[in-house]
Amino acid sequence: MNWEETIRFIRTDPAYKDVVEYSYLDADLALNVERFRSSEEFAETLKMIDAFAPGAKTLLDIGAGNGISAVAFGLKGFHVTAVEPDPSETVGYGAIAILKKKFQLNHLEIVSSFGEKLPLPDQHFDVVYVRQAMHHAADLNLFLSEASRVLRPGGILLTIRDHVIYDERDKQIFLEAHPLQKFYGGENAFTEQEYSDAMHASGFKIRKRLRYYDSVINYFPVKTASLSNFHLQMRDQFRNAIQKRFGSWVVNFPFLQLLEWITQARNGKWSDEKRIPGRMYSFISEKSPS
Asked: Rounded distance, CA 173 to CA 223, Å?
């Protein structure tokens, strides 16, 4: 399956209802936009732009997908250029075109391209925004070099919700855990150091990095209000998995408490991001003014 075929398929399977909802992949494109616009993630993203790029007007959205973010920014008054290589009306620039017409966004432009080769002018944008796309780069250094080229000096690069792995073993755990990898095989991740090195090599200074538990931008769909209880949810998931494997008798048995203690001693607290396969990070980076 390709990406579009995968999304069309999971929409028909109730087992993937949450994946469709939390990834803004419903067949109702306008609904996806409205849900994203009202999300904690988008609210926090706007705060970051206000803080690091006050007065920004032009925004480039690389890997825009079905257009949720490009349209949301357009409705906020930004002059948006959406870059997306997939032509489909399900998950690609065809969907963005539908939304552009529906919301009458004349200041939204759509470009069919990959991030590694942008048919766009030098030093043109105030903000380059990349949501869940940088980790898909075929060439991470070239991807970021192009982002730097089209960004004005002093402009801001926002890379949002990128998968981070610690090593190759961690990457394999992430790929095996990803709910859609088995269908289309297109997932990927880099280490934090690889992201940082590529940004620095492209002339960016990282102003702020948000690790998994630092912001709702990364830990969504967990809500900020319920984050304090998240470690309890993780513990319950662990207990349920043990119960499923060994039977209900194990729940009140000292063996379970011992296994929990050993697991936490080896892997850290229940809220340790190491427990999240392919945990997501976001970076706020500034292009060198000179």
From this structure: 25
